[in-house]
Structure formats: structure tokens, C-alpha cells
Amino acid sequence: MYSSSFRPEALLRCEKIQSALRTSHADSILLNTNANLYYASGRVFSGYVYVPAEGEPHYFVRRPVGLKGDTVHYIHKPEQIPALLAEAGLPIPRCVALEWDASHGDFTRLAAVFPDVEVVNGSAVMRAVRSVKTNYELALMQESAVKHAEVYRRIESVFREGMTDIELQIEIERLLRLHGNLGLFRINGQSMEIFMGNVICGDNADSPTPYDFAMGGAGLSCSIPVGANGSLIRPGMTVMVDMCGNFTGYMTDMTRVYSVGELSAEAARAHACSIEIHRAVARMGRPGVAAADLYRLAVQIAQDAGLDDYFMGHTQKAGFVGHGVGIEVNEAPVLAPRSKELLVENQVIALEPKFVIPHVGAVGIEDTYVVTPEGMKAITSAPIEILPLQ
Q1: Which of 49, 186, 299, 385 is the most exposed place for a label (fewest CB within 10 A)?
Q2: Averaged pLDDT for residues 254-277
Q3: How far apart are CA 270 and CA 272, in angstroms?
Q4: What are the φ and ψ backbone dihedral angles of 57, each rounded to 5 degrees?
Q5: Measured between alpha carbons, how far is 28 from 40 in angstroms, rounded to an integer?
């Protein structure tokens, strides 16, 4: 199923899943979404991963052909799984965890595969497991972070006077792909659709979207109502770049701000406030700290600066200030007012305190951090000041 070099990592991930199962009511979990298949096996395939509370995981594969391993079973349909588990000497589970984030059709079909077996929320189990990264995962994220920053340092070189926001975004997308970006912005659930990220300039940042974003963007079509809308980049406005950092299958999230000409003093002050929030939250963000307390700290700093009207949006505000990131861009924990989560060492969090200034645009930075006993340490690194586009 996977290379011999990945086997120790695969076993470590299996142990993490099994540890979570032992603290839950379930004695097994059956995974079928791409993100969790990738996590559990190191690859995306058509099929399922079954992890019992004890013993090795079993892989039930439809496609591609040619995958090998002692616990790899080729199937045509999931209804074959119980018989194959019995052949392997595994008991029928008493309580199986299924992915509630999968489609309703997948969920109901898989639940019927194990009749008279209790079913619980496997998505919650995997969300907790995947929020804490292994050293292998952290290395992949650091590799993405380096390449992400390399691209951002080249953005000024592709800007030309008279460009629209979408023209600049296309050039940034090209840079990303040339540096090895995989092009996939993987998102959990159906809460958001977006193509490789956002480039937002001027008043378009204040255009409300259906999504929980600090910055808006009307987009180019009602079918994807977010992001660049063809606005001309003019003097006195900001250009906020928040583009996909997926170079390894593990994403980093980073936002930087650019401008043409002079900006208002208020925009400069809000940008400086964002940087202040980053430093304060990073100092406080240690294992055991409540995610909600970090959110409240960010809000308090914005209020003390008299900038709360613009914080995390203006016409429409976002309900968070940071989020976990990894295989997907919206992982646990979420830094939000009603979060019950406590930070854990080696969680990876994208912190994005942003402001939308009417008639100027969005300001503020986003960086990706690892939670450590000494605080949150940034792995993304690019100039944090507002950079001029010449």
C-alpha cells in the first residue's frame, strides 16, 4: 500500500487513531473521504480504510489496480467488507465510527454494511487526531512554507501598471505552479469553494460573500461568489494576497498586503495592529490555553486601538481569528468565541487578524504557526510590512 520508508509514519498514525478510539465509544473506524484516506494510508485511492481499536489497519481498494500489502483487499463494493474482515480473523465491530462529513449517500450505505451495529461520529475522531501533527507532517508543512514564501517574494516582479486583480492573481497562480504548487485547495465539508486562493483589491474587499471570510470579494461569477472581480488596481488601494500554500499535500496559509501609491493613515495603523495581535497571540498560544481566550485577546487589542468596526470585516464580519491547517485548510482548532478547544503541542494554526478599511481595502497579515511550550512559532516567513507594487 505504501513505501517501506512511510511504514513507521503509517503505524504512528494508526496508533494515534486507535488511541482516540479507545477514549471514545467506538471499537473501529471506517474512513472513505480523500483527506482521511490520505492521512491513514499516505495516498488517495478509491476505497476505504478500516482501523480496528487493536491491530493493523485494513485497506479495501476499488482503484487503482496494483496496490499490494498483507492487509490490502480488492473489492467491488463496500458490502464485501464484513466477510473480508472475518476472513482476516477480525470480529464484527460492536460500535463503528463513520465519517459524518461524508455524503449522506455514502454514510447511509456504509452504515447498512454493518447492520445492528452502533454508529458514532468518526469525523469528530479524525478531526481531533489530525489536529496534532507528527514530525513527518510538520516537515512537509515546513517545506510548503518555504516554497510559499519564495513565491510571495516574487509577486512584485509580476505586477504591471494597469493590471486588474484577476490578471495579477493569474500571474501569482503561474508562479505557484512553477514552484511546485499542487494546485488543490482542499477544504473540509461544503462550507466553501475557492480556486487557489484570493487576490482582493480596494472596495471589493468589502463585498459580502456566502463564506465566513474576513475579507469578501464578489468574484467573477455568481457560481463562485468570492475573490477577485476584475477590479482595476489603482493608487491608494491595497491588494491583499491570500493564495494556496499546498506544495506537499500539507498546506500552509499566508496573507500579505501590497499597495500602489500612498495609503491612508488609518489603513497603516490597522495593519500595524494586525502585527501586534500576531505577536500577542503567539506569546499566549501555548498548550492548554483556550482557543476562545486567544480570540478574545485579538478582539480586545482591536477594540483598544479603536479599530473594532473594521476588524475581521466591515460590512460583514468573520466569526473567528484563526484556524487549524494541514491536509485541509479548515482543520481544528478554531480560534472563535464559542470554541471549547484547548491548544495542544504540535497543532498548526493559521492566524489571520485582518481589517477591511472602506475605499482602501483589506490590511493585515496571516501566518502559519506551530503550537509549542514556548508559544506559537511561525513557519511561514515573508516581509510583514505593506509592500509597494511598482
Answers
A1: 385
A2: 97
A3: 5
A4: -70, 155
A5: 13
Provide the pLDDT for residue 215: 80
pTM: 0.96
Mean pLDDT of 188-195: 84
Share of the chain above pLDDT 90, in %: 93
Return the closest-CA partner of residue 243 out of 324, 131, 129, 350.
Answer: 350
Which residue has 479524525 as its cell numbers?
Answer: 126
Which positions ≥6 away from 12 have C-beta within 8 Å? 134, 136
> What Å distances lie between residue 304 and 269, 273, 311, 361, CA to CA?
12, 10, 12, 21
Residue (of 102, 127, 103, 57) closest to 327 by Cα position: 127
What would the grid cell of residue 359 be? 475605499
d(CA 172, CA 91): 52
Residues 6+ apart with CB under 8 A from 242: 197, 198, 199, 200, 215, 253, 254, 255, 366
